Amino acid sequence: MAAPSVSCGAAVPYRLFLAGRVSFAREQGLWKAAASGLQTGTRCQILRLKHSPAVTTTKNVAALRRESYTVDFIKKQIEEFNIGKRHLANMMGEDPETFTQEDVDRAITYLFPSGLFEKRARPIMKHPEEIFPKQRAVQWGEDGRPFHFLFYTGKQSYYSLMHEAYGKVLHAEERQDQLRAKGLFSEKSKSKDLIGSRWLIKEELEEMLVEKLSDQDYAQFIRLLERLSALPCDAAEEEFVGRFRRTVTVQSKKHLIEPLQYDEQGMAFSTGQGKRKTANAEAVVYGHGSGKIEINGVDYLLYFPVTQDREQLMFPFHFLDRLGKHDVTCTVSGGGRSSQAGAIRLAMSRALCSFITEDEVEWMRQAGLLTTDPRVREPRRERIYPKRKGGAPRQIFWGLGARWEVERTKIPPQGQQSCRAEAEPGCGRWADNQDEELGSPATHRPGRDHRCYPGADDSSVDTRLQIRARGGGLTCLGCTGRLTSSGNRHLLWAARSLDAETWHVSIGGTVHFHPRQGAGPSLTVTASHLRTQQAS
Amino acid sequence: MAAPTAKVSRGWSGLALGVRIAVLRLPGLTQVRWSRYGPEYQDPQIDKEYYRKPLAQLTEEETYERELRKTQVIKAAPATKTSSVFEDPVISKFTNMMMKGGNKILARSLMTQTLEAVKRKQFEKYHAASAEEQATVERNPYTIFHQALKNCEPVIGLVPILKGGHFYQAWSGWESSTARVS
Lengths: 536, 182
Prior knowledge:
The complex is a heterodimer of chains A (536) and B (182).
Chain A: E1 21-23, E2 31-33, E3 47-50, H1 61-64, H2 71-92, H3 101-111, H4 128-131, H5 156-182, E4 197-199, H6 202-209, H7 215-230, H8 235-242, E5 245-247, E6 261-262, E7 268-276, E8 279-286, E9 293-295, E10 298-299, H9 300-303, H10 307-319, E11 327-333, H11 337-352, H12 358-366, E12 395-399, E13 402-409, H13 425-428, E14 464-470, E15 489-493, E16 501-506, E17 510-515, E18 523-527
Parallel strand pairs in A: 9-11, 15-17
Antiparallel strand pairs in A: 1-2, 3-18, 4-5, 6-7, 7-8, 8-11, 9-10, 12-13, 13-14, 14-16, 17-18
Helix pairs in contact in A: 5-7, 10-11
Chain B: H1 48-52, H2 60-70, H3 89-98, H4 104-128, H5 131-134, H6 141-152, E1 156-163, E2 166-173
Antiparallel strand pairs in B: 1-2
Organism (chain A): Bos taurus (Bovine)
GO molecular function (chain A): structural constituent of ribosome
Subcellular location (chain A): Mitochondrion
């Protein structure tokens, strides 16, 4: 279940998502809970970092409404695209008549070099058909009557396609019966075209029909097409089925085989390169030899004392039954012993491709000898939900240069004094947020512990969250002394280093950080209820 | 709490090569295990004899499968597997299970030393035995190891039995159970 995503104005470096409460502006004095997001039990805790005090939760309604493009608009775009293509050809000094889409792509990458990693975010210039999503024209006339007889099924293109396909199936079965009656029917297998092509996938079919399909619809359609293709078909039906098949490339064609090279003595040799993790290897395989392998000037028995690595070196040769027939010289750098062995194995296999037949190259590919192993060491990152005794996860995030941790905690030890609202009116009075001002002097009585909150001595309730912050040039200069009904605290910060400060806040409460003087970013940390262990 | 791994379904014949089935998303759960290979990558077939078989001897399914594999992308062969005749999957699995802290060198050396010790003992028995008994002494350490593992297998295993719309785990013979050390 996706919760509505709430975006704040500033860029947030770290964000924990799913449902949660949203803190409203202080001036409004209200805590506004996202109604659809608040759930019991199974929800994750939200801790959101906001750099501005006033945050609203209006959805971006304009973006949600789907844009509809008229036919004229698309036509205009196509004209503009064609003219633009000709201008581009002129700019690049090429002939506008023979300017293909690949030339366009090349020109755009040349004129607008982009360093963005996401390829879809780079500048593109493509035909409007590929950019604007296909949309359906209006399905009914001026009198309101729909054009298509299957309009009221809701998926008219899909059902009309099914209708057509089923008609063809009946026709083919009729023909089959007629052939059987005449005795001319013969069994023939149709497996010849099944390998080189595949059925359309659901997304492609949806795109073709400009309609949303369910998985069952798609499965039903494919079953019908398979049934049709199993029957003896004539050319029209073959063409109909062919519309829903896409060719699949034969993988071995992609691999380019280098031709053999010859050195001064006339000995044939071939080079290959290989990589594994951070190891890079280059191997030169000679046509005639006695099975000697030299790595970085050292014999392979000395370079790889471990049997497993030597077995890896022998693998390509043993696979092709050419164990003692080639000499190899290789250089390798980087990685550990196992990755160096894997890199050399790949380099040798690639070099061997020049000596063997195409079938054997395909066998090597299917044995996994010609694929670069993509597995790399996983980068270390902070685990968001480490498994901890006590169940609730610890949230970690970065904000204002400090590292924050929030976790559920038991009631703090006896030394801390608690105060009740009714017992000590001066400390725990329920103040309106409107009364609070920035920088007002603490109304706490001296000597009183800052960390007080209502119901602190209620040890049967374990609903406290502990917020710790470290680093970042922040420090807590003290509580303003005003407690709101949710047990919030407002703190001031100055430019001293924060060193494992801890605050206890009730669930739903907030820790606000405000600059003491002048302008500066302020920070609000809101804690909604934590996920309980039973829900996991 | 274990997060679910990506669920990949090997689809219908000829369907959907290269399509990623969406990972099951449940609230409160994060996917923590993934692979660098996409779901379209198939496991490599290392056995040499599979390829050396002449085309005339292949059945229809095998021909179909061969043609299909030509269109599929294959993963790289792992560093522990070769086409060598000396390689035994059971021994490799046992070595991996013996391994501690990634010290494969130690685990493998222990394994080979064990097999060598078994072989030596059996050879001593063989030479000490009379001519008739010599035929009964098994000297291949690999057969002894496999037989030992088989002897350690349980007799009964749990089998899910469907009765009244519910699956109950009931005891049955080990052969009918699907629980194995994979």
